[in-house]
Amino acid sequence: MNTTTKCAATALAAALGVTVLAGCGGSDDDASGSGSSKASKTVTLVSHDSFNASDSVLKAFTKETGYTVKVLKSGDAGAALNQEILTKGSPRGDVFFGVDNTLLSRALDNGLFTPYEAKGLDRVAADTQLDADKHRVTPVDTGDICINYDKKYFADKKLAPPQSFDDLLKPAYKNLLVTENAATSSPGLGFLLGTVATYGEDGYQDYWKKLKNNGVKVVDGWEQAYNEEFSGSAGGKKTKADRPLVVSYASSPPVEVLYAEPRPTEAPTGVATGTCFRQIEFAGLLDGAKNEAGGKALLDFLISKQFQEDMPLNMFVNPVAKDAALPELFTKFGATVDKPTTVDPEKIAKNREQWVQSWSSLVVK
Hints:
With 365 residues, this protein is of the alpha/beta class. Helices cover 38% and strands 18% of the residues. It contains 17 helices and ten strands. The protein has helices spanning 12-15, 28-31, 36-40, 55-65, 77-86, 104-109, 151-156, 186-199, 204-213, 222-229, 234-239, 252-258, 292-302, 305-310, 312-315, 328-333, 345-364, and strands at 42-47, 68-73, 95-100, 113-114, 138-150, 177-180, 217-219, 245-249, 269-286, 318-319. β1 (42-47), α4 and β2 form a beta-alpha-beta unit. α9 runs parallel beside α17 (345-364).
């Protein structure tokens, strides 16, 4: 995945190669009817490729509002955002979903969104409302990028798995970690930002020098790291992978359980909760949207209890609505991250390229 890919965990199902149906409420042909009245009943959601929702949920939106949702998927979140910047003022849709806190300022600085305070925003966690003063974007979900570990490996070695960034520097974990390239991968970038948040701008480079000396392996993207290099994943078992630590998501263990046959009683992987970076994903009403009323209705729906409770098993992310319940799969097998690291979006915007360049010169070259 590209550095500008969404964070969070929404890429999991697609990256695992799982077939998940995206409920779109209607086909492209349905949405592009020649009659203007027909077109006005369609609201177009521009998104990254990992957007998924149950057909029944999107049909409920149609029944409630009269609008049919057309989903226009546009690659990873960064690619989708770039296309909207290029078409600013004449957008391809009405609502954009998928910009996260690592790219938020870029979208806002380019004036992509028309301010709108979504109905029900009072039910949304305050710490996710990063644009609360202007309401140009609406928070929709959160996800955590964290170290995952292979439970069997550590049990067999009678070695406690690492739980913090500091732990990863210990000799006991030498040559065990695989991470994604921060210049080409969203989780790779998130992990880098986690080290910046933990050690500061003056300390993260020294941390990565030590991590490199402790044998960290860097690959281009999440799919290669998780499915080919990580010994705890279903894919890694097939490839006889030898790295029991990987940068992935806090929602990875539930996915391993969900798609395993037969389904295990315990997740084969665990999460080092002291290594997590929190990503928040937003949606916004595109400036120049042809169906502004439909776009506003869709934003309201994205934070409704019904949609919020549908997300976890479709996009493997956490709801932002405080009244939305997590499915048992998440509560039983997922990790609770009480104190994730974060970096202010403005600070990310100002320093992201410099941090990535410094990281590349230290770790990749």
